[in-house]
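Changelog note: in this version the structure field was regenerated for every chain. One regenerated record is shown below for reference.
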Amino acid sequence: MQGYSDGKPYALSWSKQKPSGSTFRYKRLAEGTAGFVGSHLAERLLDAGHEVIGVDCLVPYYSTDLKRRNVAPLLERDGYTFIEGDLVDIELGPLVQGIDLVFHQAAQAGVRASWGAGFSPYIRHNVIATQRLLEAFTHRPPRAFIYASSSSVYGNSPLPMCEDTRPQPLSPYGMSKLAGEHLCTLYHQNFGIPTVVLRYFTVYGHGSAPTWPSTALFLPCCATS
């Protein structure tokens, strides 16, 4: 994985080294660890010998029972701490102390649900929560703040898409994720926080949300493999 700070690339490597006794290599903050991507990420970080602080407010966009099942195996692992809370409400000062890398996976997902009266949670979880978390690191920036954005920022841009394709979201959800990207840029330019933006397209696999169309295609393949 590669990120950029002041225009210069640097590597964010995965290590398979195990901790010695109770000593962990680094302390990582990962929000959204009850979700599909976040739970797999937390598992990988623990396998690499890192301490992981997981935060999730379990928004009911899809089954919270499924999200709790995602968290359950992590709770059995040494080095994993789970905090059920909203980044807009919880005190972030103690949470960010000693954090080396931030994986900001937490978000309100869904394009269709972002229209009309359903828009306010997108501002809360995708914009305000991102701003609060970035602000919490202004006095002691992490080595990198990795923000999970979305391909929805591109709208109906012609294929093939690439990183320098002009963002032109066509949904309130896409707009909220692009706003988070702009916040990352602002806090990098004004406070020196090294930020990395990952624009996810369709991510699928074991534990993915049952409401995602890709899940309907993926699960039968798992059953026959």
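Spot check on this record: The two ends are 29 Å apart (CA to CA). The chain is about 35% helix and 20% strand.
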